[in-house]
Amino acid sequence: MKAADFTAPGHIGIRSDATPPMPAPGEVIVAVEACGICGSDLHMYRNDSYRDRLTRRTPEGYTVPGHEFAGRIAALGEGVEGWRLDQRVVGVTGLGGGMADRVAVPANPYQLVAMPDGVSFAEAATTEPMADGLQMVRKAAIRDGENVAVFGVGIIGLGVIQAIRARGVPVGRIVAIDVQQARLDKALEIGATDIVNPRDGDVFAQVAAVCGTEEGYRGISANIGVVFDCAGYIAHMAGPPPLETALRLIALRDGRIICFGGFEGAMTIDMGPIIQKEPAILGSNGYAPEELVEALELMRSGAVDRRTLISHRLPLSAIGEAFETQCRPDAVKVMLEIGPEAAA
Fold first, then answer.
1. Residue 38: pLDDT over 70
2. Domain named Enoyl reductase (ER): which ranges (predicted)?
3. This model's pTM is above 0.90
C-alpha cells in the first residue's frame, strides 16, 4: 500500500510498502480517492504542532496524516450494518491515515457519511471543513443586520462565508481579513462584501472605514457583532494575534468571537476588552453529525460550490510538493488525488 510518511517538520515523503489496514469491529476500510491538506496539517508540517493528534502509524512505523477524505468502502468490519461494499463515502479520522490508498474509519455518524449522487470525490473531501463552518455559524447566532468579520479565509474561513450565504443568514457586512490577496479575491467571489489585508495598514482602521465605529464608556469598537477567528496563532506572522484584534473590533456589548484556528504555542495578548465589552468567546471544534449531511446536500444542490476552492490537485506521489504548494500564497485548497476516480 502507498502511504505518506511525515518524518520531521518540512519533510514528508511517500512509502510504497505500508501494510494495508484491516477493519476492527465497528469499522470500515475506505479505498481513498481524494484527501485534502488541512490547515492543521500545515501547523504540523511547519513545526510539529499537533503531530500526535493528526497522524496514524502503520505497523512499519510510518506516520500518515490526512483526516478529511472521500472514497469507496472496500471492507466491512464485524458488526457494521447499514453500509455496503463499494459505497461512496466521506470519511473523517481524528488520527489521520487518509493520505494513503486505504484507511480504517469507525462507522459512526461523526466519521462516516454517504455521498449523494452528483458530488465528486474531490468536492466530497472538503465536507469536513464545510461542516466546521456550518457549526461556527450555528454557534455565532448572527442577529439581523449584524456585521461580521472572518479572520483567515483559507478553506475554513471561506466555508464560513459560504455557510452564511447558503443558510440565508440576514447578515450585514461580511468582512474577510487575510494577508493573501488570492484568498481575499476568492472571499469576494463567494459572498464577502469587503476585504481587509493587514499588509495595507491597521486592521481596526480598515474595518472601521467599512462598518463605522461605536464609542462609549466601554471603549471603542468597529461595529462588528461576530468575529470568526479561523487563523488562530501562527508564530511566524507579524503583528498581534487575531484574537487580540478581534477584541478591539468586537461590539461594546454582547459580541461573539468564535475561535477555530490552531495555536502554534503560547501567546501574549491584551485581554482588557474582555472585561470592558463583555464578549462571549466560544471555541469550535468539529461539527454536529447532521452538519456533515448538510454540507454534502449543499454541494449536491449547488447552494455552495466547493470546486472553486480547490486551487491545486496533485497525486499522492507528489506529497512533498503538495505540502509546499499548500504553503504558497496562491493556494486555497490543495487536493491529493489518490484513487483512479479522483480527477473525475
1. yes
2. 7-336
3. yes
Q: Name the amino acid, one letter, at 333.
A: K
pLDDT digits (tens, 9 = 90+) for 101-143: 999 999 999 999 999 999 999 999 999 999 999 999 999 999 9
**% of the chain exceeding 70 in pLDDT:** 98
Burial code (b: 16+ CB inside 10 Å, e: under 16) for 91-111 equals bbbeebbbbbbbbbbbbeeeb
Q: Is the pLDDT of residue 81 over 90?
A: yes
- In degrees rounded to 5, what are phi and psi of residue 336? -85, 120
Is the dihedral angle over the CA atoms 135, 242, 320, 95 positive or is it negative?
Answer: negative
CA-based torsion, 210, 280, 259, 112: positive or negative: negative
On the question of a common fold for 3-126+306-337 and 129-283, the answer reads no
In terms of residues, how long is the chain? 344
The 10 Å CB-count burial string (b at 16+, else e) for 188-227 is eebbbbbbbbbeeeebbebbbebbeebeeeeebbbbbbbb
Structural domain boundaries of the chain? 3-126+306-337, 129-283
Identity of residue 320: G
Using alpha carbons only, give the angle 243, 130, 106 rounded to the nearest 5 degrees.
Answer: 110
Q: Which three cell numbers stand for residue 213?
A: 465605529
Q: What is the CATH number of domain 3-126+306-337?
A: 3.90.180.10
Tens of pLDDT, residues 217-248:
898 999 999 999 999 877 666 778 899 999 99
Candidate from 61-65, 181-185, 329-333 with smallest mean pLDDT: 329-333
3-state secondary structure of 289: helix
CATH 3.40.50.720 fits 129-283, yes or no: yes
- Say how far apart CA 160 and CA 162 lie, in whole Å: 5
User: Rg of the Cα trace of the chain?
Assistant: 20
What average pLDDT does this structure show over 155-180? 96
Q: Cβ–Cβ contacts within 10 Å for residue 283, how many?
A: 10
